[in-house]
């Protein structure tokens, strides 16, 4: 066998092997990829029967509470679960997603918690001018996430206004935490849900106090 013929055979074999490798690589790249995403929800403190909430038709009760606006920080306006890795650094999960927007999940959990804890008909913001509201609760959330240690934090300023929505009856900032297992998103979602429950408990207690005061003044 001459050297030239040998080189031709060698180059042909190398080319065939290269094309086979490229074909395998292309198939691997173009093949459907397994979706490893996992989805989580925020939940109310007690998933028990509560007064109907959310629409203007729910105003037949003795006390009607307007809920909102509820403002969350822009960094939560995304499907990825956010973790605070450092005071000035956030990390977005590559696998863990919220099953609904954090805004909707937070509002829904707060809505159901307050309805159960106060017995009020809760109307979500915005509502028609014709709807009578006895009191209104506004919430401005500064922080709502877990950190690398698993600590869930909810920091928010909340305000209770009168039926006109113009006079402040009470306002305060709350900084709430709940523990969870580091790296366990299921536990983190539960811990974040508990912070919403803690905040709704504080709001409900103040609503009871304000209603008692109003009752005392009117008697």
Walk me through the structure.
- The chain has 219 residues and is of the alpha/beta class.
- It is built from three helices and eight strands.
- Strands 1, 2, 3, 4, 5, 6, 7 and 8 form an eight-stranded mixed β-sheet that branches.
- α2 packs across α3.
What amount of the residues lies in strands? 25-35%
String of helices and strands: HEEEEHEEEEH
Helix content: 25-40%
What characteristic shape results from the CA principal axes? elongated
**What gap, in angstroms, lies between the N and C termini?**
116 Å
Low-confidence parts, pLDDT < 50 over ≥5 residues? 48-60
Number of helices: 3
The structural class is: alpha/beta
Largest sheet: 8 strands, mixed
Q: Averaged pLDDT, please?
A: 85
Total strands: the figure is 8
**CA gyration radius, whole angstroms:** 28 Å
How do the strands and helices of this protein lay out in sequence?
Elements: H1 3-30, E1 38-40, E2 64-71, E3 80-86, E4 89-98, H2 102-118, E5 121-124, E6 135-147, E7 152-161, E8 168-178, H3 185-218
Parallel strand pairs: 1-4, 2-5, 2-6, 3-6
Antiparallel strand pairs: 3-4, 6-7, 7-8
């Amino acid at each position: 066998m001459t050297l030239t013929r040998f080189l031709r055979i060698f180059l042909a074999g190398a080319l065939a092997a290269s094309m086979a490798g490229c074909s395998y690589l292309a198939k691997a790249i173009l093949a459907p990829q397994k979706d490893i995403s996992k989805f989580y929800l925020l939940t109310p403190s007690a998933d028990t029967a509560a007064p109907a909430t959310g629409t203007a038709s729910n105003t037949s009760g003795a006390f009607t509470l307007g809920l909102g606006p509820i403002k969350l920080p822009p960094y939560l306006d995304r499907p990825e679960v956010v973790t605070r890795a450092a005071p000035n650094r956030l990390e977005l999960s590559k696998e863990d997603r919220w099953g609904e927007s954090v805004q909707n999940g937070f509002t829904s959990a707060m809505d159901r918690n307050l309805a159960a804890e106060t017995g009020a008909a809760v109307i979500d913001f915005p509502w028609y001018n014709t709807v009578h509201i006895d009191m209104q609760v506004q919430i401005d959330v500064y922080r709502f996430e877990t950190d690398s240690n698993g600590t869930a934090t909810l920091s928010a300023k909340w305000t209770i206004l009168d039926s006109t929505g113009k006079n402040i009856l009470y306002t305060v900032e709350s900084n709430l935490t709940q523990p969870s297992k580091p790296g366990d998103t299921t536990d983190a979602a539960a811990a974040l849900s508990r912070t919403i429950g803690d905040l709704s408990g504080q709001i409900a207690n103040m609503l009871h106090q304000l209603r008692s005061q109003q009752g005392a003044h009117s008697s």
